[in-house]
Amino acid sequence: MQTSEQGIEALTLEEGEVLKAYRCPAGKWTIGPGLTAASGVIDPKPGMVITKAQSRALTKQALARNYEPRVAGAMPSAAQHAFDAGILFDWNTGAIKRASWVKLWRHGAARSAVEAKFRLWNKGGGKVLPGLVKRRERELLILFDAEYPVLTQEFTSKSIGFARWMLKMTVDEKFEAMGAFSALGYKVGGNPKMIDAAEVRRFQSDHALTPDGLIGRATLSTLQRRIDAAAKAKAATPAVGATGSTAASLTLPEGTSDFTDWLSAQPWVIGAVAGVIALWVLWRAWQYRDVIAVKLTTRAPRLAALLRSF
Question: pLDDT category, 246, cuts 50, 70, 90?
């Protein structure tokens, strides 16, 4: 079977459709509805731009190559709408072959039993995510009732001066994103329905994204990387500062009563610790070179461009 056009539209609505390559929160170059080099159909590069038609063609290639065979094997004889629901689930989780709800569905279990197992796939990083809770509900409506999500005023409105949310998100998720914008110095306001588009475009321009004022997957992923980078940098500070106290807890050689005396007699220890810390800092800097590029754009634009090219 193949994914229906309704199924592809639903997938695009859930994942977003980004036509300029961006880094996902994990740092992988991504384009279209979440396509990375692992998709086997495209290898996104910095600055790469595709058309909407190309995005849809690549999506269909990725579905045929990676998802449709798996879902067809796990859900034989599925009606089109059930097959589409399986596709959406597998695109998001990659777990169609091991999800317990699939076996229940295949053996004709009661709807309530299937739904209970289906709803368990609502976590990310060990935490229940409101966005995934809502997504699972939308997928269940497709699975059992052939009820596909449709574009709403939220997605089609073109209010001048206000940014638009391009993904299905809960109110709490929107406020969390707005708080992140504000923490980074972008004054987006306090109303999720009236976000200053100019500030969103400023954020997008600062991060080499398409400055369209649309808050979609690329913008939110880049925002997450900024927040993650700041959190990891903050966490690293006490870790580095604790080096001495950690080392001080080591058992000292017999006859040595003071750790500083022992350390002064072992200068290689200081050099080794400093070297490890330096390597760790460099590795973190390389992982978040796109974030560093933002900070260097004004003072060292050439270096910033170089960092973005990798």
Answer: very low
Q: Which helix (H) or strand (E) holds 32?
A: strand 29-32
Residue 32 CB neighbour total at 10 angstroms: 27
Q: Which residues are CB-contacts of 233 (< 8 A; sequence separation ≥ 6)?
A: 284
In a domain, 204, yes or no: yes
Mean pLDDT is highest, among 102-111, 231-240, 290-299, for: 102-111
Amino acid at 72: A
58 and 173 assigned to the same domain: no
Lowest mean pLDDT segment, chosen from 17-26, 159-168, 227-236, 270-279: 270-279
* Whether residue 121 sits in one domain with residue 157: no
- Reduced to 3 states, what is the DSSP secondary structure of residue 57? helix
| Secondary element (H or E) of residue 33 | none
Q: Which residues pair with 31 in a beta bridge?
A: 35
* Spatial separation of the C-alpha atoms in residues 129 and 119, rounded to whole Å: 11
Residue 234 is predicted with a pLDDT of 72
The answer to the question of residue 236 being in a domain is: no
The DSSP output letter for 35 is: B
Taken as a whole, the chain contains a residue count of 310
**Mean predicted lDDT score pLDDT of the chain:** 84
226 assigned to some structural domain: no
- Rounded to two decimals, the pTM is 0.72
Question: pLDDT band for position 132 (50/70/90)?
Answer: very high
State phi, psi for 49 to the nearest 5 degrees: -130, 135
Residues 209 and 270 placed together within one structural domain of the fold: no
For residue 270, what are the CA distances in angstroms to 64, 240, 242, 244, 273?
56, 13, 13, 10, 5
Instruction: Based on the fold, state whether residues 212 and 101 are members of the same structural domain.
Output: no
228 in any annotated domain: no
Domain containing 270 equals 242-248+257-308
Q: Which of 79, 81, 80 is nearest to 143 (CA)?
A: 81
CATH number at residue 17: 1.10.530.40
Whether residues 159 and 280 share a domain: the answer is: no
